[in-house]
């Protein structure tokens, strides 16, 4: 059973998530594209950190993405 | 203007060049990128372009050589999956063999990216295409669109019926309709 603090924290997180998604949905198409690029960068960095710390290798499709974005090949 | 937006506009410019060069006919943005333009940013590595080749050969296997030749001329690198256009992985999907994809291109919305009107597959056709594809990530996107509450249900069910997808919708809807779970 959840205690009051847990209930409060979950409600707060839900509210934050709702606000964050409302903000993302309110963006113009070009702002959404910019956010997509930020998401891609963050996701790639996460995959890279995982690999560097002995976890699963960066998936081939993300390697291709990085190569396309930074090596222009 | 942000670099990312400029690059997308450059890609759309390249697609217009391909049209002018007689390589492709109509085209529209589909997949996750279309979902982003209609709704909210989600992670994707590529930009899916659904299109019609202008000249098709008689072979039962569709050849995208005309696109690869164009890419070579322009100095864009490519493999069997993607063409790298200005740093974006672009996947070209020839659509003429599928009545659903054909209809999706013919009925694409125009979404303004700054001053450029981009052809983007409309929400209801996207949902039908994701349902047809039926992968977990497709159902996630359907769930996202259903949750948004912005689908024209009459239009969606008309598309599903026309393309024999009503039964699949009824079988799978528990995956993406909150009330069905």
Helix content of chain B: 40-55%
Whole-number tally of structural domains of chain B: 2
Measured as a percent range, the helix fraction of chain A is over 70%
On the 0 to 100 scale, the average pLDDT of chain B is 91
Strand content of chain B: 15-25%
> What general outline of chain B do the C-alpha atoms trace?
globular
Largest interface: A-B, 25 and 30 residues
The main pleated sheet of chain B reads as: 4 strands, mixed
State the separation between the terminal residues of chain B, measured CA to CA: 43 Å
Physical arrangement of strands within the biggest beta sheet of chain B: 1-2-4-3
Mean pLDDT of chain A: 90
Overall 3D shape of chain A: flat
Number of strands of chain A: 0
Task: Please tell me about this protein's structure.
The complex is a heterodimer of chains A (73) and B (181). Chain A contains three helices and no strands. By secondary structure, chain A is mainly α. Chain A has one domain (4-70). With 181 residues, chain B is an alpha+beta fold. Chain B has helices spanning 3-20, 31-38, 65-74, 99-106, 123-133, 136-148, 153-162, 166-172, and strands spanning 24-30, 46-53, 83-85, 88-94, 109-113, 116-120. In chain B, strand 3 and strand 4 (88-94) form a beta hairpin. The A-B interface holds A 21, 24-25, 27, 29-37, 39-40, 43, 61-62, 64-65, 68-70, 72-73 and B 1-2, 4-5, 8, 33, 36-37, 39-46, 77, 79, 81-82, 84, 87-89, 111-114, 118, 148.
């Amino acid at each position: 059973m959840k205690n009051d603090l847990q209930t409060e924290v979950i409600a707060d997180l839900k509210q934050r998530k709702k606000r964050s998604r409302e903000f993302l949905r309110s963006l113009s198409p070009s702002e959404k594209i910019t956010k997509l690029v930020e998401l891609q960068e963050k996701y790639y960095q996460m995959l890279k950190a995982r690999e560097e710390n002995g976890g699963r290798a960066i998936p081939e499709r993300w390697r291709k993405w990085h190569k396309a974005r930074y090596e222009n090949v | 203007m942000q670099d990312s937006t400029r690059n997308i506009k450059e890609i759309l410019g390249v697609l217009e060049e391909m049209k002018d060069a007689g390589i492709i006919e109509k085209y529209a943005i589909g997949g996750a990128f279309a979902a982003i333009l209609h709704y909210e940013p989600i992670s994707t590595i590529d930009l899916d372009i659904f299109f019609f080749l202008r000249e098709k050969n008689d072979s039962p296997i569709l050849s995208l050589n005309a696109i690869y030749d164009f890419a070579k001329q322009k100095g864009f690198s490519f493999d069997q999956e993607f063409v790298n256009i200005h740093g974006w992985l672009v996947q070209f999907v020839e659509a003429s063999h599928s009545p659903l994809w054909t209809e999706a291109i013919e009925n694409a919305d125009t979404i303004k990216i700054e001053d450029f009107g981009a052809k983007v597959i409309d929400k209801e056709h996207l949902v039908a295409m994701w349902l047809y594809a039926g992968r977990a990530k497709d159902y996630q996107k359907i769930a996202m669109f259903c949750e948004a509450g912005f689908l024209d249900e009459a239009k969606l069910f008309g598309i599903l019926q026309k393309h024999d997808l009503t039964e699949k919708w009824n079988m799978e809807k528990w995956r993406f309709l909150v009330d069905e779970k």
